[in-house]
Amino acid sequence: MNCRRGEVTGVGILYIVFFSMFVVILVVGIVGGLVAFFGKGYDYREGEARALLKSVRECFEREKLDLSNLNEDIFFQKCGISKSVIEDGKHIVYVKDKNNKEFVVGVADFKMRCGLYARFKNREMPLCASHPIDSEGYEFLVGSSQNVKRVAV
Amino acid sequence: MERRGDVDVMMYNLIYTAICISVFIGLFMYVNSYGRGSAFYEDFYSKEIINLINNAKPGMEFKIDITKLAMIAIKNGKPVKDIIYVNNVNNQITVSTRKDTGTSFGFFNDVDIVDWEVKNPSGSPETTQFIFKIKEKQRNEL
Q: I want to staple A125 with a disulfide (CB 3.0 to 4.6 A). Which of A86, A119, B64, B142 is the partner?
């Protein structure tokens, strides 16, 4: 007679159930802990885009900038906007005049991403602020996808 | 046939699961208490300060109440005067209530933040303020 006390019917299924519970608890614990510790913070992308739009519009009105002889360096200096921040891969400034001449700094592809529905929930995508053609014939589109960075201090 | 192994296996699994649940509940409480909202308030205050800077003009001066940050920093053992750091070269603000990490955010307004400091006018952390002035950035003409 084979004495096989180690093998018991029904325990295999129980073991799978307990192991699954363990995995679920592990995942919930880690995810819950990360969310509790890091959180998501509030979404400042649109707020930054609006502030940047206001700054750019005021600059074009004040300095009477002309897209036909405007380059990046002149734009950043005249408008008092930081080149390193705008060209960090998380911003776009797009201007078009009445002659359909365009001026873009930052991530040009954001012009398309500003229209994607996923941008509201996905914080890696930009939220944008725009202004239709004004009295000077300029059309503005500004976007930001900047989020906070965790750094060592 | 005597099969006592099944009862032993089940007891082992029950005990093992109970220990796992206890460990992870304890872990979650530890992480939650360790955070004390540090990440949340660092995120909040960094964005609020950046919002002020982005909308500011040279010559403006600001005093911001950061009592909440100071209280968290004290609990984490961080000196209050080191809560906020300004980097004018890269146009960034770093807010830190923990000893080794912080939260950084950039401002697009190309100005210099000068005379910045964290101070307690009354000497207690319950009236902690972050004070700074906006000055035009020094740059070379094209």
A: A119
